[in-house]
Structure formats: C-alpha cells, structure tokens
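User: What would this chain look like folded?
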Amino acid sequence: MKNIPVILTISFTILSLISFSQYPEKEFETVQTFETKKAHQGIAVDEKYFYTINTKGIGKYDKSSGEFIAEWNDSTSQVIHFDGGVVIGEKLYCAHSNYPGIPMTSSIEIFNTKTLTHVSSHSFGIQYGSCTWADFYNESWWVCFSHYDNFKEQLNTDNTWTVLVKFDENWQALESWAFPKNVLNEFKPMSCSGGSWGPDGNLYVTGHDSTKVYVLQIPEMGSVLQFVKTLKVDFHGQGIAWDRFEKNCFYGINRKQNLVLKSKLKL
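Assistant: Here's the prediction, encoded as structure tokens.
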C-alpha cells in the first residue's frame, strides 16, 4: 500500500495547538434530505441505494428519490448493537458490538445488498474494544474500536484507548493508531462513532453528538493520527459515508428526526 501523503506546514502546527472547536469551517452544504422509517446509528451508500444502519436492523432506500425499498430486522436475538456500515461490491459490512456490555466484544456482520440477507460474520472477540465503524480503502480494512469514559470504573480505560486498526483483506492486523488528544476531548464522554476515507486521501471521522467532522491523516512517524482540520455539518455525529459513485457527496444522519442528509463538499 502506498503511503498517504502528509503535508506539514507552520500554519498546521499552529492550528493543531489551538482549540479548534471554536473555529469550525463550514465546507459541507446539505443538498438533499430524506425522511426514513428509522436512521439511528449509521449510513452506507452504493451506486443506487443508501442503507440506514440501526441498532438491530437495516433499511434500504432509493438514493435518488428516498423511496423505501426493503428492511432487515434481527429475529435471532444475536444482534446487540450495530453502528456504522460500508458497502463493498454487493455486500454491506456492519460494525457490531455488545455495547454497553462488558467485556466489550466486536464483529463485522455481512449482508447481501440485493436481498438484505445475512451471509457471513467476522468476529474480533474481546481484543480491541467496541467496533463502531469499518471502511475498505487502499486494499485494506480500517476498523475503529471505541472506548468510553463511562467504562473507566469497570475497565480502568477511557476514550483515549480508542484505536484505529488496519487489517489486510483477510482480517490480519497490520498496524494501529490512537486518536489525537484534541479530537478525543471533542468526543467526550463518548468516542468515535463514524469514519470514512475521503476522495482526497484524508480520513473523515465523527463523534456521537457534535455537528462536526474531523479530518485526520496517517502520520509519517509515531502512533497517533494527525489532526488536519474540523468541518461543520448539519447532522449530529453518528455514522457517515462518502459516496464513491457521486463526486464530493457525503452522507450522514439525524437520529432524532430519522433523517438522512446528503451533503456536498464545497471546494
């Protein structure tokens, strides 16, 4: 895999030392809003459809009209907590955990996008934390495992233990990174709820409630992701997805109103 370019400038160094939460740049503009039956955890997008990921179910909608197509709801009692999702080919990969259970366990649950039938599963066990999102980029899997401040008493860990793990195509772990302290402070007391690699080679992540997207990069050295900037959006955290079929389009959800928001990056 080629290294993702990292540009270090004096202005970047200064910016990283400032409390960036006070100066969000509004570079995303909402261009379309869809009402859905339920949109509570995450969002995934392919060429023709978007998929709302809910705690124990999935909704499928026409991407142009917002028309409801189909849904899947767990009838096995084996699904505990879905979070983010991503479509690769004809499969929908859903991040799954036992949140708020302890010890934290995680898996990726895989569905056929045409039929919304469950086709396979990959378990991470109790190795990393609570799986909140996954993406496939540069021939590798990138999976976020979150930790939370409210588990500190039981586990002696807080959200600073949140980690991004890079896997190969066969789910063999290759590398991992912690999140920047200033971004973790914005996430508190929760953690990283959404992530998607952008068309510019940057990683875009969201927290649980804030109307902000944080742009990160893989560092040239060290084990902490590098903060680039924060951008303002119209949705409140949770799962996100770059549309890889329509240029500069970005999807998020408003869980309180069950809305899916399509945004455009203003260049």
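DSSP finds three helices and 20 strands in the chain. If you want, I can go into more detail on any region.
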